[in-house]
Amino acid sequence: MQISNDDKKFLELYSDSKYQKPSVTVDAVILRMIDKENDNYRKLPEKKLQVFLTYRKYPPFVDHYAVVGTFIDLNNTLEHTLDLCVKNKISLNNFYKEQLFTFGDKQRDPRTRVLSVSYLLLTNAEESLSNGEWFDFEIKQTENKTEVLNDGYAVEKDIIITLRNGETILNNHLKLKINSSGLKMEKVLEIVSSDLAFDHIKLIYFALDRLKNKLEYTDIAFNLLPQKFTLTELKNCYEEILGTKLLDANFRRKTSDLVCPLNEFTGEKGHRPSQLFTHNPNWDRDANF
Amino acid sequence: MQISNDDKKFLELYSDSKYQKPSVTVDAVILRMIDKENDNYRKLPEKKLQVFLTYRKYPPFVDHYAVVGTFIDLNNTLEHTLDLCVKNKISLNNFYKEQLFTFGDKQRDPRTRVLSVSYLLLTNAEESLSNGEWFDFEIKQTENKTEVLNDGYAVEKDIIITLRNGETILNNHLKLKINSSGLKMEKVLEIVSSDLAFDHIKLIYFALDRLKNKLEYTDIAFNLLPQKFTLTELKNCYEEILGTKLLDANFRRKTSDLVCPLNEFTGEKGHRPSQLFTHNPNWDRDANF
DNA sequence: ACAAAAGTGTTGCGCATACACCCATGT
DNA sequence: ACATGGGTGTATGCGCAACACTTTTGT
């Protein structure tokens, strides 16, 4: 790690220009969970997961929606560049963030070679953002072909992701091909068609998948909720992400370590008041990187 | 995804040069599992995890060991560039690969701003590589400070990673700082000191962590073993990665779905012959990305 | 009264842990 | 004979799925 004298000499002579360089962006898939309003005074509002997209006014992909991002600044870290980007462009200040994946396909940007270091951002519904819209999800996965081979298998899945904001509907069709023979497992995710700019529907798919997987063994979901919440709210949040129904009693037991009960209750709701909870900040003490 | 006419016009006028571009490398943390030879004719060889490092003959970090990598080629995908790199530089052809993390700290390369898209590569002990050495691991983690705060906690861990190849010993000291207050969790991994080039000890740490975590719920470990293996070999492999001892009977039950028994047995070993197994290629059929 | 959510209790099954035990082999 | 690994059986207990049931509120 220490820089030697040889290195110092070398650095004086070093020219920056001999290697080809790509452009690099940092891109943020921003998700939140909102309450869908409801006419029935008894019923709880339904939880819906949403993604934040901005409308592109300039080429490339003019008039298309895209995820928020920016070309990186060589004087800042990747993370800091992203923080500044979402703060300046869309007024987002409070969020959870983790690196997702670095996309580098050759033709993903029509201008030139551009790598995208993508991040998953989670925020709660109280943040009001500018210069973009929140889109609802609708996801359909159909496993349309499965071949069992001699020493493996081949699967093809069609993934239809429909994004909706009022009248605006964005259709996206991905195809996931898994080819497994022996130990060699090849997974290719390709875009069949997409109304989004670039390969951004892939980033969104990766983000959703990451969120789903981390739900089980981390406390990541709490980043989507307000500070105080009821256990049914928490459960609805899990159900919306997983796409399945959970049993109430069991859910309460499983999440009991993750939450701290408060001495506050909701009311005026057409049903029994419910206790409010907060995230237990001491839960994941033995976390690793 | 379709390129519009507006876009086409734009692209004709587009100049590639107006954004600052970083250099980008792809880097491979290559791990394998070998058998440590043994004098006792009865005893099974001990399994040891190793990492492959190359010796740097030129600045920067001349005379230091580093992970294998290369500056990217703008005419190739990241993955293909890496495949070619390990094939040409060190004659590695058969391996498991997955993207690890993209490192982008400002000072990680003394020359200029360089991003590293890092990959985890696993190979089995039969591949013989050129232009580099395999290093044994020794890892010590000490949790030296834990503060429980009002709404969270602060932990500092020292991580000592010693790499050894014959007489060559490389010492590395990392510090992991976790600051958790409420939902905000900040994890910083910093290099206290390292005998390796660049921040490569961080890549290695990430690789080990990924491997450890994926061990439980994937079949990733089989990439480290020969095609045919005994269950005790498999168990030793798990134990070496996890750093804990496992119970034999339970391990066999847990892994029974992952393997296929063969009608072959080892012999001439000073103990009862053991059945050979292969990886069950149809195990993870319902895998997701 | 009733619909909806809040919350508790119970039962049974499956799986993991821990341990005991027998088998087969080469020297 | 014996050390070593190969391999099986089983008791115990915990966790989770499934379901039943009670409580509390506003209209």
| Name given to the CATH architecture of the largest domain in chain A | Alpha-Beta Complex
Ends apart, CA distance between termini of chain A? 22 Å
Give the helix/strand class of chain A. Answer: alpha+beta
How many discrete domains of chain A?
Answer: 2
Instruction: Name the helix and strand elements of chain A from N-terminus to C-terminus, one letter apiece.
Output: HEEEEHEEEEEEHHHEE
Sheet of most strands of chain A = 10 strands, mixed
CA radius of gyration of chain A: 22 Å
Task: Return the CATH topology of the largest domain in chain A.
Answer: Nucleoside Triphosphate Pyrophosphohydrolase
Instruction: Round the mean pLDDT of chain A to the nearest integer and report it.
Output: 91
Q: Low-confidence spans of chain A: pLDDT under 50, at least 5 residues?
A: none
Spatial shape of chain A: globular
- Count of helix runs of chain A: 5
